[in-house]
Amino acid sequence: xxxxxxxxxxxxxxxxxxxxxxxxxxxxxxxxxxxxxxxxxxxxxxxxxxxxxxxxxxxxxxxxxxxxxxxxxxxxxxxxxxxxxxxxxxxxxxxxxxxxxxxxxxxxxxxxxxxxxxxxxxxxxxxxxxxxxxxxxxxxxxxxxxxxxxxxxxxxxxxxxxxxxxxxxxxxxxxxxxxxxxxxxxxxxxxxxxxxxxxxxxxxxxxxxxxxxxxxxxxxxxxxxxxxxxxxxxxxxxxxxxxxxxxxxxxxxxxxxxxxxxxxxxxxxxxxxxxxxxxxxxxxxxxxxxxxxxxxxxxxxxxxxxxxxxxxxxxxxxxxxxxxxxxxxxxxxxxxxxxxxxxxxxxxxxxxxxxxxxxxxxxxxxxxxxxxxxxxxxxxxxxxxxxxxxxxxxxxxxxxxxxxxxxxxxxxxxxxxxx
Length: 419
Hints:
Blueprint: H1 2-18, E1 26-30, E2 64-68, H2 78-84, E3 89-94, H3 96-110, E4 119-121, E5 133-138, E6 143-149, E7 154-157, E8 169-176, E9 188-191, H4 207-217, H5 228-236, E10 243-247, E11 250-252, H6 257-275, E12 282-286, H7 323-333, H8 338-342, E13 344-347, H9 350-354, E14 360-362, E15 379-383, H10 388-418
Parallel strand pairs: 3-6, 3-9, 8-10, 9-12, 12-13
Antiparallel strand pairs: 1-2, 4-5, 5-6, 7-8, 10-11, 14-15
């Protein structure tokens, strides 16, 4: 019965809150009741993410649930989440994969709202791919769920005057993206900065640094040594060599990616200090979402359209030694004000996502009227919805529940001490 199911879910939530487990260590399990919503029921979903409507022949990719080893996650409760977000702003900042997660949350939340007209983009902008920002308001809850495109978090800019002729663009590592003033009053901030890490975009990177980064991602299951050279050659072809790193008015032509990424995280954390009210704002940094191109990349014929199941046999890979994780942890550990670090949480999706070779857009991203694209133009980085990003948001929901409980315990303890 409905009451029995509700009681079971409440018990599950209580057990999860009482347990101390690593929710990022687990496996994918088949869940017949999934997905949590249907793409055709979500009016806030970009056409490119509607794989089933665009002709993908199976829906197996929608049926997998993330199961931690040592505890059960509470099922995502959209009504409860909306109540938690009442009178609040949720802001996603990052690249197009961040947008993937943003649209997933919109679909999850809107599934609990019967009147879709009460949910709208505040500026009347359509939900189509573009590089600016979108603000969706849930009017009945006076809540907004927002997206700002800032792939590097720091400022991408034209080169300064008298820069060498081969410098076409710079990343100003000591300045936040121009849109940062719009983020700071958010109640929930979710960052990602994959721009430094994915060589299939136009990056500020040299070949030596790229080889270093790719060799580290071998450990995450993204490449194996039998194909690394072939993939490396293909990826190098896509680099925009006219982009360099800048600090102040000085361009550094030799800076490697690790150093630049670390400096950008320092800039982010330094910005958070004076600009963000940490007594009210919860901050998450979502880690890298692996791509799954085979035999090439976006521009050189890489494919993933034959992948229909997760990789369930490989051991769970850890993010502990990855470049991105260690860089963020190093920056936070060096902070003189440790309270800043305590208020930032990592949404560690890299290991779990590396197993999901299925679920990418592959051939099905141009809409139902166009149909599948050429096999040589596949998208093996973005995700179909519903799919993997829903699980990221389920983890986000679970962490928020944990944080809420911890805060309640602190408040209760403080109250008892005063008495």
